[in-house]
Amino acid sequence: MPENRSLAARAGRNVPVATAIGAGLVGLVIATLSFDRVLFAILVSVVMIPSVYEFARACIAINVKINRGILSVASVAIVMSAWQYGFEGLAVAIAVSTPIVLISLLRSGFENFVANATASLFTLLYLPVPAAFAVLLAHSPDGRAKVMVFILAVSLSDTGGYVAGVLFGKHPLAKMISPKKSWEGVVGSVLLSIAGTSVFFGIWFHQIWWHGAILAVVAILAGTSGDLIESALKRDIGIKDMGKSLPGHGGFLDRLDSLLITAPFAYLIIQWLS
Question: Distance between CA atoms of 255 and 216, rounded to whole angstroms?
Fold first, then answer.
């Protein structure tokens, strides 16, 4: 149908496939949280590995090389240390991983060392460190509900922004960075995320509705920023998607960008309000 092709063109993705993949990922998260929350920590740590490889492949386009193996091991160690030992484990894992990652780059000599080292440390700060906050949230009392409301707030923001942007988007939010992201999409994010998060926050934590609204606003601001940050990265590198692992979404990083940036803020807000 011409209308469907037009909608797909505006959406920039295969909507049915993207929806199916998204539902499957959400189902996997719910299953791990419901059966045993340590499985959620393992899932997060495992997802770090293809995410590191995606970023490493992208960096090659701008002649920057990072040690994928060392960074993958470090990423898993950071996430699982946060689960096992809390904030102390997270801090120690970061402190130990940082010099190891830098030392591993010495094998390649001094040429482009600053760029390679910067990209390597950025990888740690961009991927496992914020992901560890989702794991810390899962490990806390009522961890299952806390992680679910965090993911819900971000997902509703993404969904509201996506639908409103596709249907009504005319005024670019940041044209130079992400031409398809619009102010109309931001309005959609605000309406859907605040409405949905307020309801479920009240149901799961028996709190007044505006506590959920605060989380939603934080998720909208951080999640939108996460989208723009990755868009800026991809534009600078000169690629459309970070990977092709998730049909309809791109790569793991294309799916995780909003969640990663939001996770530390969500941890603080949820722990404070719930």
Answer: 19
